[in-house]
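Need tokens for this chain, all 147 residues.
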Amino acid sequence: MMDIEEIQEYLIHRYPFLLVDRVVEFEENERLVALKNVTYNEPFFQGHFPGQSIMPGVLIIEALAQATGLLAMKSEPDKTGKGRTYYLVGVDKARFRRPVTPGDQLTLEAVKLKERRNIWSFSCTAKVNGQVAVTAEIKCASAGESA
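Here are the structure tokens for all 147 residues:
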């Protein structure tokens, strides 16, 4: 549905902080499913943790937040698109259920719960091989002028 070039048209993040590689499902204003390929050469694995590489939970939350941004921006570009900045403003009910390690492929799912006054709420899940790794409710807000 979206390759890395199209993702970069929506998200301002770039390597090493762009944490979405591909979008595989998109239902406008409803849900988005994206992929993140976790590789050993990611810069955070050097120190997290030597001898037992685990993707930091905060980066999994960030990957989920980027997926919410893609869902919001692709669904409503006039409210969240070019010329506007999309901020992470809240994380609730975050649960970390299994480690994510090099070689894993994260499946990131964002489901829109509601939108009110430029604040979007989502139910998010990150899975590896169908097993839940992280769940969270994420809130984001858009700010700035529309292009």
